[in-house]
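Purpose: get a first structural picture of the assembly so the mutagenesis plan has something to point at.
Setup: two entries, given in the order below. No constraints added.
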Amino acid sequence: MKVIRTVSEMQALSRSWARQGTVIGLVPTMGFLHEGHLSLVDTARERCGAVVVSIFVNPMQFGPKEDFNAYPRNEKQDLELLEARGTDVVFIPQLDEMYPKGFETRVELTRLPNHLCGLRREGHFRGVTTVVLKLFAAVLPNIAVFGEKDYQQLLVIQRMVRDLNLPIEVVAAPTVREPDGLAMSSRNSYLSPEERTMASCVFQALQRARQMANGGVVDTIMLRRAMTEIIEQAGAQVDYVAVVDPDTLEELLLVKERAHAAVAAFVGRTRLIDNIRLKG
Amino acid sequence: MKVIRTVSEMQALSRSWARQGTVIGLVPTMGFLHEGHLSLVDTARERCGAVVVSIFVNPMQFGPKEDFNAYPRNEKQDLELLEARGTDVVFIPQLDEMYPKGFETRVELTRLPNHLCGLRREGHFRGVTTVVLKLFAAVLPNIAVFGEKDYQQLLVIQRMVRDLNLPIEVVAAPTVREPDGLAMSSRNSYLSPEERTMASCVFQALQRARQMANGGVVDTIMLRRAMTEIIEQAGAQVDYVAVVDPDTLEELLLVKERAHAAVAAFVGRTRLIDNIRLKG
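Result (structure tokens, whole complex):
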């Protein structure tokens, strides 16, 4: 396994792979890897001759009051986990090459970010689309794997790739959960032992909404009320609970054949998100 | 010479070139080609094993009151000119593939567009950067050639390429002029015979500013006044006359070692632009 820290070296290697006809897979991450990330690596490994995992904590996608500085980092452990999982290259770009003096280019979407997390995190998705385009340009992948846990991010990236004609297939990989249902996330490391116990309420709320929908409840006000109750009774705080169209993320009044429930909640000071397909 | 009208066919061909190690050059145009465009093709031809010229009149870079519908088009003549000049592929993407239903992605710069033409043409450079990124993704060039006549566009593209780590070298090609100095432009075809005679005032104004600067005039108010006089005495209307830093496009009070003069003028209803390096 090779560690590459400059864009030019990464591009040179990717171009030599492309000349050999090697299919290149990219798994973009912010590091502090867990089994969720590693399942994305497995997905890339199955499909690609060369697997690149990028590690970059991207300041542009954090708001001024968010946790950029506190975000957990452990490069040594990340490299061990990736080596064990059969990664070919770990691409760790440096901040001053990603955002050089005079940097002024943004990639942004005009509609999909105006829902869910995008409404609570001003500029977040602009930061995501900009950095992901830069990672795509550096790694030149044929396939890029993103987790369904960050469902809005997945849709935003899929839309960007389609809109910009990028020659990349975006692959979605299912959310990996702890035994009690909590979606794996680097931010789970912020939780105290009591908060960790409390945090399972997020998935419980989503499961309850799914049971209700499968049981015939179509009024999304009732689903949202039920989710809110479960979260608040556990002692967490709702940031949003929503039932949305899974393509446009527009809120639904009535559950349709295709509908998604999404939650963001504060467990203590830690903001957790999760989502679930309501039917089928 | 091959004509390609779909992104997927273009990408497949570019990828097969890349596998052979062929250097790919792209000349993006809006068609209605003249000797200015063809000199860009010559520049690409000298440097590249495969030369692609794109023709796409991009609605996103025209304002609502601008000349998108009137913009001149002549595909048959363009193809003849390009074949004679040794083009390998003419890429003519279709509107519904470039801007499909639900399109919502924008690429934009936050500083360079806030000068010169960018101030007069709301959203113009957002349209340029977005479409050029799409053309880059479709053609996957190693080198892209742009004319110095659209100087602000050239800077904007160079900045975008650097900021996004695109693995593309942007090559600038000098402005090609008519015998009386008028910069070649597809929009010159709008001019009546009298307007065509009048239009040489734009370059005359720039030349006068250069003579003055080389003669020791450093006060840019005097240079701008002289340029304005020449344009107005010819019967044209100034949209802007400016003396700017050639990297940031910020207006200068005093001429520096590196300074650029830029003009936009209406000759009748036709808006013409041109620019010149003031010193050296």
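The interface with chain A takes residues 7, 11, 15, 18-19, 21, 97-98, 100, 102-112, 129-130, 133-134, 137-138, 140, 159-160, 162-167 of chain B (CB under 8 Å).
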